[in-house]
């Protein structure tokens, strides 16, 4: 039977519940078998298996369908939200399938994969500052509220205050967990962003297993773990983990069943996520790493066997540029590597570590251009049998390319700077700055061989790490 040609597409789409929404929920439960859980049994609920890749699909459909029922969202309307990415993805999945427009505000620390996924779903994305607190005009929640107020017919999902958020977990996630664990569970480890998961699960388990203990996993820098322990709202810091941790107590938060709280450093969170993939074959994001790290701590502290559950909040495939990227982790100081106490510590891609992206003299300029683009660098060392014989930068490529259409087929040795000036690894920061101030990249090489390149960004990153270290020490 054909669809009526008289109905606008948005109206037709919103009148029919998309089949993809039936895939949300009923996610699998797996037991951890290759990590040290002490005397406890630890289960993971794979919320990453939702069609949008995260637990936030649940609240996306719940909030939109609640707004449809009470008339806040009409056909052709616009869904607006402030999000760390996953709620936006859940809302975009549901809203676009139903024919609504989507406008999202995300902090600038979010993984590139999330932003690209949001745009692929047709969402309009506004990126704002992540270093400001509630009340600042560029704080992501406040900005989203202003945008919603300026769009006629918009629905501001407002996950931090929306009762459909915890209700989704009280009526669906909680019953699933209880059934999948055979009505035998002692503790659940959760994180808090909007607090919908904690609040909804707490409400459900008070009814079916009042003795169940909730454990809060919180990033270092967030105020929530200290709030649970002391009742005091302290000063927020910063953290790299996405999606959990707050600088305020969410309005819908219910901490009444939380008996333990752990503050997990970023390095431990990222390390736990990577270990989960390496040992159990399960890719999870940075918040999953925080939850897993706290769950493992809690399990190892127990003296009697307990059955414990935590969540794989979202898929690790949207964190390939961060959690699973050694170079990014090193730049952020989250992955240790050998220290030399000289300029080699400033090199982001060290030859000794196999991290150098280079070309050979006989490679074509086209090959050099492609490597620059893929590695997102503007210069390449030219190596012959491990020896530095030149350097090629984007200005060399540009000069060569302007000579004719076949220029990029020429060999690198025709365009490179041969016998470039180098600095020994033991050179001072002042000597390094003198090179960089002349607009050059610093080439670190000495009698031990070629070590790598130092750019202005590398020096800035070094100074940033020193600032963070001194701030932490203070």
Automatic annotation (TrEMBL):
SMART domains cross-referenced by the UniProt entry: CBS
Pfam families: CBS, PALP
Keywords: CBS domain, Pyridoxal phosphate
Cofactor(s) annotated in UniProt: pyridoxal 5'-phosphate
GO biological process: cysteine biosynthetic process from serine
CDD domains: CBS_like (cd01561), CBS_pair_CBS (cd04608)
Transmembrane segments: none
Domain of life: Bacteria
InterPro entries per the UniProt record, alphabetical: CBS_C, CBS_dom, CBS_dom_sf, Cys_Synth/Cystath_Beta-Synth, P-phosphate_BS, TrpB-like_PALP, TrpB-like_PALP_sf
A single GO molecular function term of this UniProt record: transferase activity, transferring alkyl or aryl (other than methyl) groups
Domain named CBS: residues: 347-408
This protein's record includes keyword Cytoplasm: no
PANTHER family: CYSTATHIONINE BETA-SYNTHASE
Family listed: Belongs to the cysteine synthase/cystathionine beta-synthase family.
Protein name: Cysteine synthase B
Species this protein is from: Rubrivivax gelatinosus
